[in-house]
Design brief:
Elements: E1 4-8, H1 12-27, H2 34-42, H3 49-62, E2 65-71, E3 81-87, H4 90-98, E4 113-117, E5 124-126, E6 134-136, E7 139-141, H5 152-155, H6 159-174, H7 192-195, H8 202-210, H9 217-235, H10 240-261, H11 263-271, E8 286-290, E9 298-305, E10 311-316, E11 323-327, E12 331-333, H12 345-372, H13 378-393, H14 395-479, H15 488-580, E13 593-596, E14 599-601, H16 604-614, H17 628-633
Antiparallel strand pairs: 1-4, 2-3, 4-5, 6-7, 8-9, 8-12, 9-10, 10-11, 13-14
Helix pairs in contact: 1-2, 6-8, 6-10, 9-10, 10-11, 12-14, 13-14
């Protein structure tokens, strides 16, 4: 009987922080005692002193830290023994790790504590997390090792067929995985293997897929879960690596759910051969009309219902073949054709694709019916009549025969699908071969054209050289005309005959190469004209874009300048208006009653209230009338 044991006591997050704090204190030439460790951790984390001291003792119990007695050689505690802590050495870590057979942290909650060990895998579980385990023969089997209940079609897949589908799942998981494409660098994270029992990355997982190590999708999913488990333990639940691992597992769950629902749809949707959506699956899906918001009723395949059958997962016909959950009230059978007033082009394409799917499905059913309706001889007829009698008398035998007929139907459909897949593969192979032949032919043509261009340039260069030599010879003949003693008519006859010989040689050489050179020059001229026209179009487009950008920037600058001028003008007007007014010296409101040259009031009450302080600075001339009222006011 399996027992609960404690593999580790301390929290990995606390242990990593404690080790960093101890190393930091030691680097400052100080003794890492409890007080210094607590202060160092509280400066960086919001942990209480009790939690830090508790985890410190548990880390010593797990062997991550060593408790020693140190005597200070300086300071106020000189000569007084005190408790200090040291980090464990790497050699001891390696020796302890080689003896381990199971993980140290719970597979469900990723925390330490009292756990039970699975007898079939290295996973461990807390008592509260091990509710799905089973005991058989005195051995405890965890929930990850339990067999998966699969549909009949998925259950019939071999490990080789499953590996083909899992390769597409791996491709989807790699789309977001940047830091999981290769193993974690243990030189950067030196203590990684002290917390992680089974390191895993996508390259190692893909290697196991190619080795056909998985028999069911659940085995693959539980193996990939090690990446998330390791990230939570070492980096923490809120780290970027953990978020990335969660995103990878979400993609993995979605792909495996689609695979288990219908392996044929999953495989064909990833291979995407020509008209893949119109090929019936091993168990054909029901056709329905699905209504989405803002769209007409659309033809679709019904993939599955939810638990309470309030929503259905459908996949629409058309170019995109999108999936969606549709409410049951918006789904009608395909036999009830809806009224669609506006029929867009996409809807018509979806209808054509659905009709092609129905034709292929009917063809398969007709082939199965012809297999069933084979001619029988008299003995077979008698045997069949006896079987029908037995069916009527024995309902169990009748159900057995019906199941056999259904199985034969399924095998015929499967053979037909395999035959179609082979034919499509042969067509694709022939197309690839034809493409390769055309590519080779194009390369040879390019090589011939390049060699012909080189030969043409060489011939032109030679012709230029001959022309230059002839011009030089003519110049020499003209210089030495007076020196030569031969008669003039002999020299003229000789030059004329030489020119005639050269013309004859040119005429003999020209007919053989003139036609080829003409064709080459025409091709080159056409290429140059096409390239020139293309360059001119691109240049015109670039000029138009640049011109438009400049005009746009000018208009924006002009508008901003107008706004700035208007704002400046309004500001100056407001300032001038403010300057023209007088303001109360007591309450700062607009003043109407002047007192002296720089003091005014808005009301008499403000003047009376401010007169006690203003009378010492008032510049108004005192009255000399001597009346009682003036003396009182002044």
């Amino acid at each position: 009987m399996a027992k609960f044991i404690t593999r580790r006591y301390s929290d990995p997050a606390f242990v990593k922080a404690l080790r960093e704090g101890i190393l930091k204190i030691a680097s400052q030439k100080q003794c890492p005692n409890e007080d210094r460790i607590v202060r160092a951790l509280q400066n960086e984390y919001e942990w209480t002193k009790a939690d830090i001291l508790k985890q410190l003792k548990l880390a010593v119990k797990d062997g991550f830290l060593h408790q020693v007695t140190a005597i200070s050689s300086h300071g106020s505690t000189k000569g007084i023994p005190q408790t200090a802590y040291r980090v464990r050495s790497n050699e001891l870590d390696e020796t302890l790790r080689n003896k381990e057979s199971h993980d140290w942290y719970c597979w469900m909650c990723h925390n330490p504590g009292e756990v039970i060990l699975c007898d079939y895998c290295p996973r461990v579980f807390h008592r509260r997390c091990a509710h799905d385990g089973t005991v058989s023969g005195g051995k405890w089997k965890c929930s990850s090792c339990q067999p998966q209940k699969l549909p009949p079609l998925m259950n019939s897949k071999t490990p080789e067929e499953l590996a083909k589908m899992l390769i597409f799942t791996m491709d989807r998981m790699k789309e977001k995985a940047k830091d999981f494409l290769k193993p974690i660098d243990t030189e950067e994270y030196e203590d990684y293997l002290e917390y992680i029992f089974k390191p895993l990355d996508l390259s190692l997982l893909e290697k196991r897929v190619t080795q056909k190590c998985f028999k069911t999708p659940k085995e693959f999913r539980e193996e990939a879960q090690w990446m998330l488990h390791n990230s939570i333990i070492y980096f923490g639940e809120d780290a970027d690596m953990t978020d990335l691992a969660e995103a990878i597992m979400e993609d993995c769950d979605g792909e495996l759910e689609e695979m288990v629902r219908c392996p044929d749809c999953y495989l064909m949707s990833n291979i995407r051969t020509n008209n893949w959506f119109t090929k019936p699956c091993y168990f054909p899906h029901e056709l329905v009309w699905a209504k989405m918001t803002g769209e007409p009723p659309w033809p679709a395949k019904l993939l599955s219902w939810d638990e309470d059958k309030s929503k259905a997962l459908v996949r629409f016909f058309g170019t995109a073949h999108q999936r969606a959950w549709v409410a049951s009230k918006n789904i009608t059978p395909i036999t009830q054709k809806p009224e669609v007033k506006k029929r867009p082009q996409r809807w018509m394409q979806a209808i054509d694709e659905m009709k092609l799917y129905q034709r292929q499905l009917n063809q398969l059913e007709n082939n199965m019916n012809t297999v069933k309706k084979t001619p029988l001889n008299q003995s077979q007829v008698d045997e069949k009549s006896t079987q029908t009698d037995e069916k009527e008398t024995h309902p169990d035998k009748r159900r057995k025969l019906d199941s056999e007929l259904e199985l034969n139907k399924v095998t015929e459909v499967r053979k037909e699908l395999e035959k179609q897949a082979k034919e499509n593969a042969e067509i694709i192979r022939k197309k690839d071969e034809r493409i390769c032949i055309l590519q080779d032919h194009a390369k040879t043509l390019e090589e011939h054209l390049s060699s012909a261009v080189m030969n043409l340039e060489g011939e032109r260069n030679r012709a230029k050289q001959l022309k230059q030599k002839l011009e030089m010879m003519e110049k020499e003949i003209s210089r030495n005309k007076n020196i030569i003693e031969m008669p003039n008519h002999v020299i003229l006859n000789g030059s004329a005959s030489r020119e005639r010989e050269l013309e004859v040689n040119d005429k003999m050489v020209a007919p053989s190469d003139s036609q080829k050179d003409l064709e080459r020059e025409i091709k080159e001229a056409v290429k140059r004209a096409v390239n020139k026209e293309r360059l001119e179009k691109e240049r015109a487009i670039e000029d138009a874009v640049k011109r438009t950008k400049r005009e746009k920037e000018k208009q924006i600058e002009k508008s901003l300048q107008v706004v700035r001028n208007e704002a400046e003008k309004s500001l100056q007007e407001a300032i001038q208006l403010t300057k023209r007014k007088q303001w109360c010296a007591y309450c700062s409101k607009e003043a109407f009653y002047p007192c002296c040259w720089n003091t005014s009031y808005c009301t008499v009450d403000c003047q009376k209230a401010h007169w006690c302080s203003h009378r010492f600075q008032c510049m108004r001339l005192a009255c000399n009338c001597g009346t009682r009222e003036c003396v009182k006011s002044c």
